[in-house]
């Protein structure tokens, strides 16, 4: 595995820094992907390739289109046009839960763990792929008996790996923000994905858990998976990425190793320069907490009615 990893990284050494640069062994390949909201072109990607077996970071200013691109690639949204493939097979119009079953799974900026289910129940449902919360809630009772035995062993192994085994019977709603991120990552692994896509894994995570989260992300790569993550935390990007893709205004504007990208004038102009005086992490935490609270209140209201 170690030899494969260094081979995958070494292969990146010869890749050009131009947007959409071809990779030696792409697991994802997409072309002419666009998504507009009203008059706004949120995503306008001419070409993108994600190298297999390494960690790629997707960075860019707020509103650059990173989450929208994630949504498109994983079947949570539909593009105006464009096609993309995973392991050489087109994924356009394939629904999210089927994308997950093919081996491409994503987590969310605001975690989608179900707070009124226990940690182990959340894990078992992860084995069904991702169908969204409504599906999970509605289908939970009927799936329960058939899935109970089949997936429990794998779920318990993953909980131990992510140090959540002590929380097994707790409601997911009682977990801290960082523990929810870990649970979501663990749950995504229930389908044993080849590619795992993490949307802002560090947002809302306290410093003590950050190191452990970084270690977990690296271990995903070290066991042979491909990792693609969106992140504003530049320390994390610098620390663990093998490759960085930069988006601004829906387009890919630069690519390269973390070192070369952070020295790239186009990136400094489009992103890093603009955030020079701002503590991005603090902004994200406040936003996230407010959104998470609103989500919980809405959920409670829904359950009342
Ligand atoms: N459902 C939607 N309806 C209307 N506009 C949307 C929708 N989703 C995203 N947008 C807009 O598309 C643009 C890209 O948003 P997106 O969330 O993909 O950016 P991002 O790079 O992930 O930003 P951030 O770093 O803040 O999460 C933004 O201008 C956003 O307001």
TrEMBL record:
SUPFAM superfamilies: P-loop containing nucleoside triphosphate hydrolases. GO terms for molecular function: ATP binding; ATP hydrolysis activity. Keywords: ATP-binding, Nucleotide-binding, Transport. It comes from the Bacteria. GO terms for cellular component: plasma membrane. Residues 28-274 form the ABC transporter domain. CDD domains: ABC_Mj1267_LivG_branched. PANTHER family: CONSERVED COMPONENT OF ABC TRANSPORTER FOR NATURAL AMINO ACIDS, CONSERVED COMPONENT OF ABC TRANSPORTER FOR NATURAL AMINO ACIDS-RELATED. This is ABC transporter ATP-binding protein.
């Amino acid at each position: 595995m170690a030899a494969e990893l260094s081979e995958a990284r070494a292969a990146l050494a010869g890749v050009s820094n131009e947007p959409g640069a071809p990779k030696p062994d792409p697991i994802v390949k997409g072309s002419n992907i666009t998504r507009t909201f009203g008059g706004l072109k949120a995503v306008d990607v001419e070409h993108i390739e994600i190298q297999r077996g390494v960690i790629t970071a997707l960075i860019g200013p707020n509103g650059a289109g990173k989450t929208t691109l994630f949504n498109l690639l994983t079947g949570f949204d539909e593009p105006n046009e464009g096609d993309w493939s995973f392991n050489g097979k087109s994924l356009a119009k394939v629904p999210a839960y089927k994308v997950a079953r093919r081996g491409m799974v994503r987590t969310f900026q605001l975690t989608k763990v179900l707070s009124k289910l226990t940690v182990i129940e959340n894990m078992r449902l992860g084995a069904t792929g991702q169908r969204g919360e409504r599906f999970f809630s509605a289908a939970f009772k009927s799936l329960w008996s058939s899935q109970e035995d089949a997936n429990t062993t794998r779920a318990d192994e993953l909980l131990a790996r992510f140090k959540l085994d002590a929380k097994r019977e707790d409601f997911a709603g009682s977990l801290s923000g960082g523990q929810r991120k870990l649970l979501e990552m663990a749950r995504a692994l229930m389908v044993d994905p080849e590619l795992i896509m993490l949307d802002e894994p560090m947002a809302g995570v306290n410093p003590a858990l950050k190191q452990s989260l970084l270690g977990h992300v690296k271990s995903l790569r070290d066991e042979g998976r491909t990792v693609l993550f969106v992140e504003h935390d530049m320390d994390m990007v610098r620390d663990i990425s093998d490759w960085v893709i930069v988006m601004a205004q829906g387009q890919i504007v630069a690519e390269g190793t973390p070192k070369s990208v952070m020295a790239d004038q186009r990136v400094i102009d489009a992103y890093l320069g603009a955030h020079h005086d701002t503590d991005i992490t603090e902004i994200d935490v406040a936003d996230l907490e407010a959104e998470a609270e609103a989500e919980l209140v809405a959920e409670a209201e829904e359950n009342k009615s």
